[in-house]
Design brief:
CATH superfamily of the largest domain: Spore Coat Polysaccharide Biosynthesis Protein SpsA, Chain A
Distance between the termini: 15 Å
CATH topology of the largest domain: Spore Coat Polysaccharide Biosynthesis Protein SpsA, Chain A
CATH architecture of the largest domain: Alpha-Beta Complex
Number of domains: 2
Shape: elongated
CATH class of the largest domain: Alpha Beta
Order of helices and strands: EHEHEHEHEHEHHEHHHE
Strand order of the largest sheet: 7-5-6-4-1-2-3-8
Strand content: 15-25%
Number of helices: 10
Radius of gyration: 25 Å
Oligomer: single chain
Largest sheet: 8 strands, mixed
Helix content: 40-55%
Amino acid sequence: MKLSIVGTLYCSGSYLIEFHQRISTVAKKIAGEDYEIIYVNDGSPENDLEIAIQLFQKDSHIVILDLSRNFGHHKAMLAGIAKAKGDKVFLIDTDLEEDPEYLISFYQQIEEQGCDVVYGVQAARKGNWYEKFSGSVAYYLMSLLIDIKHPKNIVTMRLMSRAYVNALLLFNEYEIIISYIWVITGFNQQPQYIKKHKRSGTTYTFRKKINHLINAITSFSAAPLQLIFYTGFSIFFIAFVYAIFLTYQKLVLDIPLDGWTSLIISIWLLSGLIIFFIGIIGIYIMKIFMETKRRPSSIVRKIYEK
């Protein structure tokens, strides 16, 4: 098969019919009739699956993976990629924030440059000032703590060769941060700048953003554990020097020692640091615990395929 197109479904039913018409038109220009469109229903609470089934009954190019529940965007994408059979695999969200017509320019670039991947990058991050600011802070923290050159303002949309897809599927972690998996898989990956549209009613909440940040840092970096060591050593060194200073004041200068306020502040500070560091270690232990269970990253309840 020449081309596979993979898109996930979660509260995107209102865009699905238009998306399918546009992506089908583009796919036929590139692959004729030798293509497939894989929709992965990630446990959507809306009527995404029903609309996809209606399209499936009319179009033999459609394959639907109905997951048993909501496993998350990254795991749903991997499930669709694993099902794809095409020599080229095009990954895109179905909510029309990214224009399906970019597939043409992506395909031209991957053919002209002979690269393995062409991925989309926003020239400027979309959203209001809060989304831009929080995104910049999160990217700064991840780039500071994770020793992986992650492209800035990367989007879901990407066109991948079969060799790259096969390598990508070798990763079998349960805790998946797919954008970093894309990077560390290697191969020749080239960017293409795109314009991403703003849609209302995003499901990517503040809580999910924080979880993504924590998951990314603890999945790809040991820097927080090293930070615990250096912070503990610094506190010990400062406390040791201060203890010598107090001893000198008492024994040599005969200055009485007091200061219950500073003592209480020190207790609260050190107690907070201890609890915080225990929490960091707990997150790493939790990740080890989850990975050793070897649970499947997703479960397919039913496949609709002709």
